[in-house]
Each structure stands twice: as C-alpha cells, then as structure tokens.
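Q: Convert this sequence to structure tokens.
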Amino acid sequence: IFGVKCKVAGDIFQDNAILSNPVAGLMVGILVTVLVQSSSTSTSIIVSLVSSGLLEVKSAVPIIMGSNIGTSVTNTIVALMQAGERNDFKRAFAGATIHDCFNWLSVLVLLPVEVASGLVSHLARVTVSSFQLHRGEEAPELLKTLTEPFTKLIIQLDKSVITGIALGDESMRNHSLVKVWCKSNCVTFSCLSTPTDHIS
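A:
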C-alpha cells in the first residue's frame, strides 16, 4: 500500500515547475496532510520521494513545513468534538491552539529564511556529507548515538534476561528486565545490650 501511495505521489510531484514555488509546496504539504490526516504518512512519502530522486531536497523543505501545519487541523477537529461542554471545549481548544501557534510560528520564521538563503537544505546537505556514506554501506545509528548516554543515566535493561525469555528459559520469567545499577551500601548497626543494674 505504501509503495502505491509513493507511486501516485511521485506522479503528482513530477511537475517541478509548481513545486519550485515554496508557497505552492507549503500548500501541497498542508493539503496532503489534511487529506491523509497524518503528518507522519505525508512526511514519509516526501522522504521516500527525495530518496528515490523524484523530488529535490530544496523543494521538499516547504512541503514538510506544510505537513507540520496540516497536522494542526487534526487537533482542531478533535477540539471541535468537545463543543457540547463549554468548559471542556475551552480547555481542548486552548490546547489545540498552542500546537497550531507553535507550527505556524516555526514556519513563519523558517520558511522566509529557507527561501532567502537555503539554510535548511544546506544544513541537510552538510549533515549528510559529514557521515561520509558510501553506496552499499549501512547507515549509522544516529538517534541511538545521541540518546544512549542519556538513557543509560535513567534506566538500563538487562539484555541477558531478554535473551533468556526469547530463548524460552522459564527461569528468566521471574527476573526483572531493569538492571539494578544503583547499589546502596547497607550499614548495619548492632545494639549491644548490657544487663542493667537494678536501681532501687
């Protein structure tokens, strides 16, 4: 299904004369996201089109910004469903508006910067070229490299327990998946009781 979506989207996006206009690209991103009701789906389609060479990175930047605006339509629709209760609707619409304002403001700041200087597409090219990837080479695990030092400070999983459960070892089922890495030193105090003299 995803391949069919990409093929249809590829036929639509072949006309680079329209998509070379950043405002048109922004509107396409909004429209696609509103139609599929998922910014993840529309962004995945755009990334696949760029990867296959059907779309340039410079043209993809405004479309992805448009998908961020399009996703704010979904939370506004959800907020409108609360219109029966005045207080619930007020809180729901306030929450939806925060999301909308963030997306609109980021586009209002970044789109003119991108149109004037090509900053975002240039940063994307610099980032990719810094990886020094070659054809047929496995891509680096960028997200894991960035997050692993922080997640290790919070929680560590015991991989031997996971492996044991996967292999069907019944004795591992009662073990905790969380590795105990914070050991506390227990100090034992012994109370020496001495017989007390009878005080008369």
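The longest helix spans residues 86-117.
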